Amino acid sequence: MAGSLLNIGLSGVLAHQTALRVTGNNVANANTEGYTRQRAEFDQLGGQFTGAGYLGSGAQITDIQRLTDSYLQTQVRSDTSVSAEIGIVAENLEQINNLLADPRTGISPALSDFFGALQIAAEDPSSVPARQELLSQSNRLVDRFRLINDRLTAQSSSVETSIRSQVEDVNGLAAAIAETNRSIVSAKGAASGSQPNDLLDKRDMLIKELATKVSINVIPQDDGQLNVFIGKGQALVMGSSSSSIVARKNEDDPNSLEIAIGKEGRFVQITREITGGELGGLIRFREAVLEPAQNNLGRLAISIADRVNDQHQQGMTLENQFGGLYFNDVNSEEAMLARVVGNAANAQPNDRIVSVRIEDTTALKTRDYAIEFTGPGRDDLVVKDATTGATITRTSLGGLYPAKLELDGMAIQFESGSFQPGDRFLIQPTRSGISGLGLVVDRVEDLALAAPIRTESQKSNTGSATISQGSMVGNRSLNTNELLPGFASPAELTPPLVVRFLNETTYEVLDNSDPANPQPLSPPLSNQRYVPGIRNELFSSDPFAVQVAADGTSIGVIQPPQALSLTTPPALLNNGYGAQTISIEGRNPETGAITTFPTVNVPANSTAGNIAAALNGTPGIKASAFTDLQLSNFNDGGTPGSAALRVTIAGTNGQPPYSFEASFADPVADSPAAIADAINADEGMKSLGIVALSDGTSLSLRSTDGRNIQVGLTGAAADGDSVQLTSAGTAVPQTLNNNEEAVVGGQLDVVLEDGLRLRGSNNAIFTPTPATETAFRGFMTSISGTPAKGDAFTIAYNSDGFGDNRNALALLGLEAGGFVGPGKDSFNGAYASFVSSIGAQTNEARADAEAASSLLTQSEGRLDAVAGVNLDEEAAKLIQFQQAYNANAQIVSVARELFDTLLGAVR
């Protein structure tokens, strides 16, 4: 009995001694980071059967258990990754926000100062100090963009350096976890399966530290090892083996690092799959904030340079020349090539030439594009969003180079090279915009603040009409970028123009190179309609508008079988126009969609006016018609006073033909000038839109609405009366003799908006594919008020007009214009919107960081409640185990005394 009691006491002493050691170890490590509270697990020793039943034989420690919770550990790791990620994003966002919002470094103040200096220059465009201040503020604006570009570039470099550092840390932690796994398995084997708690704590600490670098998923093995996965299931640690991640140059963009994972030289790119932790935060910041910021500011710089350059080139300098580039050309060869990065893995030979031309800044977006030639054809390609991978469009280049793909305000130009399936290209249309901004103008004389055209009203005008100063629309061809023909000669408008009113509702525009003898333009601008009471624009503002013309018919001369009589109404003759079907189709310049409009069926002998009216029923077509007939060499043959001229015009709304008759026997009273005056004074002729002009020796008849003009000549039967007739469709003047009638059809001038094309079914009116000429002159002007017949207005080059500020005002108007992005924001509006979005992201990240930190603190608190050392609790356990230890020692003492008593009795 004494032996059993002794063993029981000894087991209790040893068990509580171990418990005291465990508790003491807990107390000693109360402030040790990563230490997990331990607990000695008591269990009773197996009982022995006695006559009275089973009797216990003492206590034992079966395990030293770590008090932790796997769910709470997972939660802490997850919250750690989230907090680290958001924290690094918020920290970097603060830098960008402070940079852009600070008046000392932001774009907005410099932009306002630039337009402020432009306002002062516009108030006194000939002032050299005002021009010098404008140049100074222009330089300041460029310097501000460069400052921001330098700071963003430095931050980008810092991010890339941090990514490399984080990758090294991840690899070191992965290797340490794998090694700890190995040590744990070894220690468990040596301890017959008992857990090496210190190694488990160490591994948990390594895993938690890894969670600050990247989001991880931890899976236990049956043998106690932990496997660690990152991304979308890529194994970083498998038991006692670890893989490595590398930060290497991106094949698509050598200026950016990508993350790959693998071992033994075999790596798989997982950049987009990396989330959480500082590494995930750096990648997220780079792709979601930094690169978009560079693209946004690049687009703004491109928009400013493009619009200012375009407007400045339409102005006139102090040296009477067109303005040149104000800022660097956004579509220089260097700039266009810099927007494309060929993939490093593209097959040899490396001979592909791809460039990007900025076409429309209002359609330009801030994303990057990935182009991949996917096959099966060597020219089949897909365009994707470079960040999200979403497909934007699929197309084929058709095997003909150069080829062009128009997309989001840019033209991707595939110039030449051996394009083939597998080729990839990164398109960054706006990334280099900030660094590419530079000032070209460096002399005050080169600032083009004046407009290059000048308009004037002739002093002899009697009407109340006025002509506007005029404004430039564009002095270069959008197709060739060459100066338009009207501006090809330096400091000249070729030709200068005169606007001459034939009556109150009709005008023509003539070549005024010889003011004493203005000539028709080619193509002509004759018989233009004028509406009193509104502003009438003289020229097309559409750079792609084209003009086609039907020149009218030849003069038809009929020799009747008997002499004509002035008293007998003449029959209306055929004007020579045959029947024709006119087809019209349009191509949407943005979508490429083809629209076919209803055909225009023209009956034979239609007047030009009727044909024009039919064409004007199609949207986008502006057709005008007029008939012009010149009469000269009036010859009154043998009998003086017998020659008489009759002009016959078809009536209106079914009314019979209307005729006007005049003799030309008297060289003064019946001269061509007198006949012209008489025709112009005739109310019937006025109502039919007939205008007569004369230079004293010839007579010009014009139908302002394209009616046929029929003339007849009568005289004595034996006289040789005659007159020569000339029209636009007649190569050689025709002679109208005594008792003959002739008719001439009108001319058609048709202006077609961009994308519209006209085709004829034969050569009756228009040729099947009529030649087109541009209807765009590069400038616009308007006339308002009520003109009088004979009023004229001139348009010429604005030589020495240095006090003119129209182009300065046009440049100033760019400040409020909508030129940036699909939202068509103003320059300051676009910048303010962008800065506001960065501020909102910063505030959001700041709030998220605080929330994430709070959640981490809570989850750590919950885990600490389970795994942390509570000194009060441990102190109570020390007392408890000490008392138990003393009690068990007393059992041993009693057992010894009993044993000594027993031995004494035996002695």
UniProtKB/TrEMBL annotation:
PROSITE patterns: FLAGELLA_BB_ROD. It comes from the Bacteria. Pfam families: Flg_bb_rod (PF00460), Flg_bbr_C (PF06429), FlgK_D1 (PF22638). It is found in: Bacterial flagellum; Secreted. Residues 93-327 form the Flagellar hook-associated protein FlgK helical domain. InterPro entries: Flag_bb_rod_N, Flagellar_basal_body_rod_CS, Flg_bb/hook_C_dom, FlgK, FlgK_helical. Its main location: other. Residues 6-36 form the Flagellar basal body rod protein N-terminal domain. Residues 867-903 form the Flagellar basal-body/hook protein C-terminal domain. The keyword Secreted applies. Keywords: Bacterial flagellum, Secreted. Signal peptide: none annotated. NCBIfam families: flgK_ends (TIGR02492). Belongs to the flagella basal body rod proteins family. PANTHER family: FLAGELLAR HOOK-ASSOCIATED PROTEIN 1 (PTHR30033:SF1). This is Flagellar hook-associated protein 1. It comes from Allohahella marinimesophila. The lineage of its organism: Bacteria, Pseudomonadati, Pseudomonadota, Gammaproteobacteria, Oceanospirillales.
